[in-house]
Amino acid sequence: MPVVTTFAIFCLSAAAELLGSWLVWQGVRENRGLVWIGLGVAASGVYPLAATMQEEPEFGRVLAAYGGVFIAVALVWSTVLDGFRPDRFDVLGAAICLLGVATIMFGPRPS
Hints:
Number of domains: 1
Largest sheet: none
Mean pLDDT: 94
Distance between the termini: 17 Å
Number of strands: 0
Helix content: over 70%
Order of helices and strands: HHHHH
């Protein structure tokens, strides 16, 4: 699977997980109610479905790599939607995670 497709699927998974968590947060912590919580649960259900679209057959490898993408997407999400301003160590940490993702997903494997 091409690198761009792999990362796009991971980003879709992360966006679904983040949206679901954010909606539940709004429902519970901001007292917006059960509709928001229900929408959050539904959005969270997209995350594992998107993850299964990866061609990699090893569940553990896919989920380990996904974690690195989730970290980077969470920083972008919080910057765009919550006004968080990551510092250079946040950015460096996310870059290291993405390097880890690339290593896990695309490193040479013995035949």
